[in-house]
Amino acid sequence: MGPFGSEIGDFGSGGVRFLGNDKVGFTSGTFGGMSDHLMDMNDPDSDDEEFDEDDEGDEQPNLGGRSLWVNCDKGYNSSTYKPAQCNSTQCSFSKSHACGDCIFRSQLQPGCNNNTCYIWGENPLIDSYIDRAEIAEDVLAVGSTPGVLVTWPRFIFTCLIYPDLMRLLANGVTGIAGFGHESLISIPNQLALDRRFTRMFGMCLSSSTKSRGVMFIGSGPYYVYNPKKIDISKDLVYTKLIKNNRGFTVSEKYYIQVSSIRIAGQDVPLNKTLLLINKKDGVGGTRISTTTPFTILHTSIYDVVKTAFIKALPKNVTLVEPPTKQFETCFSSKNIRSTNVGPDVPEIDIVLHKPSAFWRIYGANSVVQVSKDVMCLAFVGQDQTWEPKIVIGGHQLEENLLVFDLQRKNIGFSSSLKLQQTSCSKYDNTIR
Question: Where is this region: Disordered (predicted)?
């Protein structure tokens, strides 16, 4: 816990921003931290059109991102913006791969300066990379309880001027907030250089299209309301963070060990070699992703999960033709009753490193209502030849707290916050 108390600050009124920047920044509250610092978050599974287009400055969270990067193409006006000069400490710290001059604009601007260094800029939503993301620093301000602003005068981030890299970002989103665990300039690792923070953060995605989830930076407790204040970081199930150093940027990603999957209490017959990471090429295993809308399963895993799920459905539930190409397994919802954790469908347990350590997925996260009378299993089957065999996506993460302890190299899972009659959007929002 930091020096400003144990409650979280609210960024809905501009708690996180780059000082000196009068247009772009974290003015609508995209992220923040600690038991006393936080960031509001967009979820890739949410309906983008529901968000206010006036919310300038939001950043899409990316668990595997190397850095915070911002779209500087449209009016990043800051009196304190400083591009990193070639061979500077900032370039070395960022592990820059190149240096150069501005060649894409007729005049210098943030994102396009002379004698500056670059790293790769990434938009994981379109699986696209740019090799000229300008490294820079600016003054970052983070709100905290009891309402003060905590500032970092030399926060390193990357500034991009390439419109193509902004494709598929939600309305009002102006960049990617990188939470990678290896990069020295990822958000948690930079803030951990300050004694007020630890190398730990909590992530809680909201299921609502009208309210935001939250990132807690630093150690707990992490409080939400139901309506009483409760610490949702208690009673988590922890498993080890697995390192995967094969591939281009894979070392930043968050991998966990999954040993089996249970549906309605019964083990699903899996080819368990798919659940292991190949030490030669890094293929396989299970990765957590905030930029994947729905969990992806290797086709052979999906097929047995689908079969077991259908078998465990109530006998009076009928399968129907999928009304959308996105999902393969759909059924009538007329005879599916509602519970406090969503539709009453078979529970899915993601079994971690041992049988007693599992993350339970209830109906709110395992299925999706695609039309008035039709639900679909909210998992996607794909070949995944050169990818992780399981990619846990945003829909399955909604209304669950995940705590990433980078110091101890483990990850903690809650179950659905709906069990506690609360949600990720019900955090303390008293800071103004």
Answer: 35-66
**Could you tell me the maximum CA-CA distance found in the chain, to the nearest angstrom?**
69
Detail the DSSP E strand segments found in 96-247: 98-100, 116-123, 128-144, 148-160, 173-178, 200-204, 213-217, 223-225, 229-231, 237-242
What tokens were used for 420? 């506690």
Query: Measured between alpha carbons, how far is 116 from 88 in angstroms, rounded to an integer?
Result: 9
d(CA 274, CA 251): 19
Which residues make Cβ contacts (< 8 Å) with residue 320, sequence separation at least 6? 330, 331, 332, 374
Nearest Cα to Cα of residue 62 among 169, 137, 211, 197: 169
CB 181, CB 406: distance < 8 Å: yes
Closest to 268 in 3D by CA, of 228, 304, 320, 223:
304
Counting every residue, how long is the chain? 432
Contact 98, 118 (CB under 8 A): yes
Between CA 130 and CA 270 the distance in angstroms is 38
The answer to whether 194 touches 179, Cβ cutoff 8 Å, is: no
Question: Would you give the distance in Å from CA 77 to the centre of its chain?
Answer: 28
Note the CATH architecture for domain 17-226: Beta Barrel (2.40)
Condensed to tens digits (0 to 9), the pLDDT of residues 297-318 reads 999 999 999 999 999 999 999 9
User: Which element (helix H / strand E) includes 308?
Assistant: helix 299-312
Is 90 exceeded by the pLDDT of residue 399? Answer: yes
CA 59 to chain centre: 11
Q: Which residues of the chain does CATH 2.40.70.10 include? A: 17-226, 236-413
Pick from 221, 191, 182, 183: nearest CA to 403 = 221
d(CA 251, CA 410) in angstroms, rounded, equals 15
Architecture of the CATH domain 236-413: Beta Barrel (2.40)
Residue 252, SS3? Answer: helix
pLDDT of 384 strictly over 90 = no
3-state secondary structure of 240: strand
Q: Determine contact, residues 66/185, Cβ cutoff 8 Å.
A: yes
Find the helix or strand (DSSP H, E) in which 93 lies. Answer: helix 89-93
pTM score above 0.90 = no
